[in-house]
Structure formats: C-alpha cells, structure tokens
User: Fold this.
Amino acid sequence: MFEAVIFDWDGTLADARQVVVASFQKALREINCTISDGFIERRIGTGSAETFREILRSTQTPFDEALIKRLVERKVQTEIELSSGIKLFPGALALLEALQGNVKLGLASMNNRQVINHLLNKRSIRKYFDAVLTADDVAHSKPNPEIFLKCAVQLKSTPDRCVVVEDSIFGVEAAKAAGMKCIAVLTGVYGEAELEKAKPDLIVKSLTEKSRIVNFVLA
Assistant:
C-alpha cells in the first residue's frame, strides 16, 4: 500500500484544455504572435513561462524575461476570467473522496498558483489536498521531478511510497524520474501508445475507473 497520491491538475483532474489554449492565444495576440492550438496543447503541463519561451523561439520572436512575465500575467488573468469553462472530469470527485482518509493527497500542477487557488476554491475541493504545489514553488518545469519531490516532502512521504496521477508525457517522465509510481490517464492530448513510451505503471482511460486506481494505490 502506498501512503500518498499526487495529482496533476490540467488534463488530469480538470478538463481545462480549451480555456488554457484560449488564454495563451489571447496573450499572444497582444504581441501579434501566431501559433497553432495544437502546439500549445502538447505543452500543457510544462508551465506557462516555459511554454511561452518555446512558442517565441519557434516563431523566431525576440523576447526577454520581462516579456515572458507579462505574457504569463496576461494568461493567468484570462484563465481566471474564463474559469467557468473549466470542469472537473467525470469521476474526479468520487476518486478524491474514495482516497481521502486512506492516503495523503497532494496536487502538483505546473499552472500558476493564482489560477490553481482560484479553481480549488471555486470548485470547493481544496479540502481534499494535504499539499498543493504550483509552478510558483519550483525552479524547474516537468519533466524535471522537482515539483513531485517537493510535494512528497510536504506530504511527509518518501518517493517510493508515492503514486502520481498524470495525463502528459512530461508528467509521467517527471514522476518516474522522482522514483515514484505513476498512473497515466488518457484524458489529455496524448494517446496510449505515446504514454506507454514513458513507462507508467498503470494506464486508465479516465478517472471513472475508480476501482482500478484505488486497488492499485491501496493493494
């Protein structure tokens, strides 16, 4: 039996893809930068600042860190404005309720703290988490394992006793690099074959497969 489960947010617990993409695109329009939605979608989970850097490099748009900071602030503001469009995935709440009291629960998202705090309060689910870490708490983006390792410390757990639930290749790679087990869920933009290459310990189609997830964690 494991003693802690650490969840990602965007694409794992929350169906936020459309809102996240729209928020990036609105910020980019203000500097007349054009990129496909797909480019953004496949980088969700690496953090807003790093995604903006990749976009600007890809489009050969000159930038400095002051510009990145302004773009992130605009993206955060827009995502909060559009937050009514972000819904929990089916099965998310039931899974959190099933796990609470049996293991410690953490949230480790590369989204920004202002966004995550707003959404946790809006959905009234902050009470489920014993630790919440965001991009503001780390120096390195996923697939670097920093955010998961710091979350384990806050949960007073060791990596080998933690299970991560993730939807992205970056997240699975980060979990494995942290020495944690990982459940990959097919609710993000990555297909099963892509996720398998990152070697998760279990793949589920959605969080509605509660019994498979709970049995893996508590076995």
Remarks:
- Residues 4-15+86-218 form a domain with the Rossmann fold fold (CATH 3.40.50.1000).
- The CA atoms of residues 2 and 50 lie 32 Å apart.
